[in-house]
C-alpha cells in the first residue's frame, strides 16, 4: 500500500475533508487513468491530489500546503470544509 497516498489522505482528513479517492491499483482501467493523469498533470506518481479540478501535486506538495495553511485555505474556498 502506498505510504504517500496514506499521508495525503491523512492530511486531508485532519482538516475535515472527505476526499473522493480513486484507487488505481484496484481498477481494470487504472493504467489508462494513470496515463491520462500524466498527460493532464505531467505527474506519473501517486497520489495526485486535486482541488476544484486542479492538481495541487502529490504528498510532498500537500504536506507543504498543509504546513503553510494554504491547503486549509483552498479547501475552505472550495467549500469542502468550513
TrEMBL record:
Q: Which CDD domains match?
A: GRX_GRXh_1_2_like (cd03419)
Q: Which Gene3D superfamilies match?
A: Glutaredoxin
Species for this entry: Albugo candida
* One GO-annotated biological process of the protein: cellular response to oxidative stress
Q: Which Pfam families match?
A: Glutaredoxin
Q: Report which superkingdom the organism of origin falls in.
A: Eukaryota
One GO cellular component from the entry?
cytoplasm
Q: What is this protein called?
A: Glutaredoxin domain-containing protein
